[in-house]
Amino acid sequence: MPSPSLHRGGSSGHALDVGYGPMHILLISPGFYPFHGHNAVTEATAGLAKALRNLKYEVTTLCPLLPSEAHKQRGLARRLDPLSVKLGDQSKEFVIFESKSPSGVNHVFLSHEDPTSSASPETLSDMDVFFCEAASRFVHEFPEALDVVHVHDVACALCVPMLKSTEHTANANYPILFTLYDLEHQGKLSELQASELGLQNKDFSDSLLFAGTVNPAAAAIQYTDVLCTNTVRLAADLEDDSTAMGLKQRAEQREHCAIGIDFGVDTSVWNPATDTFLKTHYESINLQGKIQNKTQLQFEKDLDVEADTPLCVWLIENTDSLPESLDETFFQRLFRNELQLIICTPSDSLPEVVTTQEQSFEKQLRCQLNMSEQDQHRLIAAADFLLLSTSSNHLLNLSVVAFRYGSIPVVADTSFLPHCVLDCDTELRSGSSFLFSTTHNDDVLKTLQRALAAYSQKKLFLDLQHNIMKTDLSWDRSARHYAQLYKELASAEQKQEK
User: Is 6 in contact with 14 (CB distance < 8 Å)?
Assistant: First the structure.
C-alpha cells in the first residue's frame, strides 16, 4: 500500500520516481474519448492513458460500446468468440472489439445492444452491472500479465469487488486503484435489481449494503487497494461529514485516506495553436488569433462585430445546468451591461425562459441548439468568458479547458474544480476565474457583473488571459502521480507474494 505521507493531489512540483521497469496498466472506464464523446470521465481516461504511454507504460483501456456505435468507428477488430456472462437467471453475450490508437494505447470494448445500457451517475442499469461482471471476467482471462487495474467512476464501481471476489482469487494477483469523480451520485441499485441479478449471493454482498441502500461506490471504497479522487478538494470532502455524502464512514474504515490527484487537460485535443476545429490559431504570446476567432463568430451569429465588446459563452447541458430561480429579471439586469451572450446546448431545445429572451435582446443574445464538438471548440476559443452554471462535475472539466484558450471561467465554486481554478480579486492581482458560491441566479448574476468589471480593466484583463494560458494543465504531472501509486502498489504486491 502507498505510504500515508504520499503527497495528496497533483499540484506539487517535486520530481517523482516513476521508473519500475515495463508495467502494464489496465484502465476500466464507462467511456473513452473520442469513442464516447466529451465529459469529465471520458476525457480523463483518454488523457491519462496517453500520458502514461509517454512514460513508457503499456496501457490497455476497457469500456462498454453499443454495436450501433461500434459500426461507426473505423479500425475496430471484432473477436470471433463472444464473452458470455450470467447474473441471477439472466445471461448476456458481449461482443469484443479491439483497436490500437496512434499513441500506442490498446483499446478493448465490450459490446451489447440493450436500450438500458446507458450509465447514470444516480443509479445503475442492469446492463451497467452486466458490463462490470463481463469486464471482471475479461480481466481474469486476460492473456498478459497486468501490474495494476485502475477503475474509473461509479458506473464501473462494481468491478472492484467483483475483481476481488473469491470466485477469482486464484487469478487476482494484481492490485486495484479506484478513482471517484463524484461523491453525491453513487450509482445506487434498487434491492429488487440486486436480488434479480443475484448480487446477494456474491461473497461481497455485505459490502454493498450501506446506509440502507445497495451502494456500489461504498463497496468499491471498501475493496479497492488505493482510493483516489480526481481533484484534491474532493479527497478532502471525503474526510468531512458535511461534504462526504455519507461516505466518510466507509472511507474511515480504510487503512489510508483517499488521495486526491487533480485532473489534467489533453493538450492534443485542446490546444489553440493546433486545434483543427479553429479557423485561426493562436498562442498565449499573441492573442490576435483569439480576437479573429471572436469577430468571426460575432459575424456568423449576426452580432455587432466589436472586438472590444465582452463575449460570454454559456454552456448548458440540460435544465439542471441552469441557475436556480432563473427568470426574465435575470436577463433584464444582465443586459444593462455591455455584453454579448451566446447560450448553447448539445440538445435540441432550451427552456422557454431562455429562448423567449432572444427576441427581447436581439442585439446581445443568441441561442444555439445541437452544439457539435466543432461548435464547442470554436465557441470556447472565441469567448472572453465561459459560463458554467452547473454544480455537477459533468461540464466543469471545461473550466480548465477554457484556460488553454484564454477564456476566463465563470463557474460554481465546487470540489470538482482543480487547485488552479481560484477566484480573482477585484484588482486582478491574484486568481484565475470568477467563482459563485451558489447556483442561485442572484449569485450567478453578481459574479458575471464582477467579471465584466474586470474586463473593463483592459491591461490587467489581458495579463490575466496570458497567465491562465501559460498554466501547466497537461496530464503529464497528474500521470506521474498515478504512476508513483502504480509503482508502490506493484511493489507491495510483489512483497506479499514473497
Answer: no
Instruction: Give the whole-angstrom CA distance, residue 182 versus residue 272.
Output: 29
DSSP strands (E only) in 173-281: 176-180, 209-210, 213-214, 226-229, 259-260
DSSP 251-280: HHTSSS--EE----B-TTTS-TTT-TT-SS
Express each pLDDT in 63-106 by its tens digit.
998 766 666 666 788 888 999 999 999 999 999 999 999 999 99
DSSP 200: G
Give pLDDT, residue 5.
31
Q: How many H helices and E strands in the chain?
A: 18, 18
**Residues 202, 92: Cα–Cα separation, whole Å:** 18
Q: Enter the C-alpha cell of residue 236.
A: 478532502
What letter would DSSP give residue 144? S
What is residue 148's predicted lDDT score, i.e. its pLDDT? 95
Query: DSSP assignment, residue 293?
Result: H
| pTM: predicted TM-score of the whole model, two decimal places | 0.89
Q: What's the whole-number mean pLDDT along residues 361-373?
A: 95
Q: Could you give the CA distance from residue 208 to residue 214 in angstroms, rounded to a whole number? A: 5
Partners of residue 412 on adjacent β-strands: 436
Nearest alpha carbon to residue 306 among 445, 467, 444, 455: 455
Q: Which residues contact 469 (CB under 8 A, 6 or more apart)?
A: 283, 284, 403, 404, 405, 406
In Å, how far are 32, 33, 107, 218, 410 from 74, measured between CA atoms? 15, 14, 13, 38, 38
Beta strand extents in 298-407 (DSSP E only)? 311-315, 340-344, 365-368, 385-388
Are the C-beta atoms of 248 and 227 separated by less than 8 Å?
A: no
